[in-house]
Predict the 3D structure of the following.
Amino acid sequence: MHPAPSVIIFSVASGLGFGFLAFLGMGLVLPSGLVAFALWGLGYALAVGGLVSATFHLGNPQRALLAFTQWRSSWLSREAWASVAALVLLAPVALSDWLGLGWPRGVGMIGAALCLITVFCTAMIYAQLKTVPRWNHWTTPATFLGFCVAGGALLSGQSLFAGWALMILAVLLMAGFAEGDRRFAARGHSMASATGIGRIGTPQVFEQPHTGGNYLMREMIFIVARKHVEKLRIIAVSLAAIFPALLLFLPVNALTIAVAVAFHLIGAAVQRWLFFAEAEHVVGLYYGMR
Amino acid sequence: MTSLPTHTDRKLGLVIDLDTCVGCHACVTACKGWNDQGYGAPLSDQNPYGSDPSGVFLNRVHSYEVQPHDTPAQIINFPRSCLHCDDAPCVTVCPTGASYKRAEDGIVLVNESACIGCGLCAWACPYGAREMDADAGVMKKCTLCVDRIYNENLPEEDREPACVRTCPTGARHFGDLADPESAVSRLVAKRGGYDLMPELGTKPTNKYLPPRKKDRPQEASLLAPLLDIQATGFAGWLDRVLGKI
């Protein structure tokens, strides 16, 4: 699958943003005054900035409101509802923290849950696709939620919680890589099943249907740069999970958190690039390319 | 609503005969030609006369070489377009309700005025049936020529999809696959029509007819490998002379 920058930025930024908002909403971090304004502002900026970035890959973003209509059947529509519900419910909690109003925390807990549901819906957009065997697995939502919780804990300075969450994330990433490598073959898709002509003999492409590129090939057949996969996986796991976890052994202050989050974000971006670049769509079978 | 209908009265679709298709791409051209005008945004091309031309097509013809274990390799031309699946994954993923399956005839369509161009339906389709129009920013797919098949302004023989109407070898058939007595259903039953990637559970309406077994020329004697065939005449003389040198 084509790793579009807008979607990578969206899922990395909003994953971290919603994770951080969840921690703020639950009251595990209780800032006040201008610090509260800055921290809640950061959470909202990451979450909303990510969502806005996602609209850049739409062909007709002016109709984006229609995406709220199909929540009964579509994970993308559910994501739209969950994200807006989370952002709206957490607004009074943010206001209360900022102005010291001392409003009850119950709404914040519901908002935090909705943050996690939003990230789960985002992940399910990918995990539901049977056409991309690597994504069609429980490790996809688990990894997205792992990033959300670990990133949120890290950014809110919950060092013990963050340390454990980062270790779990590292395990999830490695399990996802190992399992993902087996999935396409395990599903039994082949050029023979895609065309049905395997009953005669072994098929291979004789001639492509067109000499130029097309949408399908640009969007779903991405074979560039997979040669560095092994190194990129090590970079992703190290930067996203292991380095930040090790940094937490240092005294926790704004600087260590900033450095740890910076590592984590770069690692998350590398992981997300791999998430798309490594994913093979079954349509590639018709072209003899995956 | 992008939920699928529980039942469709008819299942209009295509039956494609891989035995007869010669890979002329006339269906590709006819489809592009018809869908350049009329229903929805016209299928656009980008940089059509430049160095890197690209465009939207709703039908594409692949060519495969198949190597049977005991006969020479065969070329099989393979037209690929929307299969109007019963359990169409492209419909349920749509966030806006633009993608839908009609309860009356089973045709899968896109309401372009509600399409935001997110591309998720194209990801959900295993068959590469959907292509985003780079000009209009909306998803395009085979409409089964819904603007031809019910069009009373056209002469009756033209009320079938453009690809079927144009096919010079009769490799494409259009009809109701829910009716077991229809010509297409009988064809599928007789020739062993099959589904593409049945393991994905999409239950396609369109069926493909497998190539028939090729005849094998029987010019040489079946005993040829066992016979000691001697050259005679000039060839025999040449054989003896060359053998002595």
Notes: Chain B touches chain A through 68 residues (CB under 8 Å).
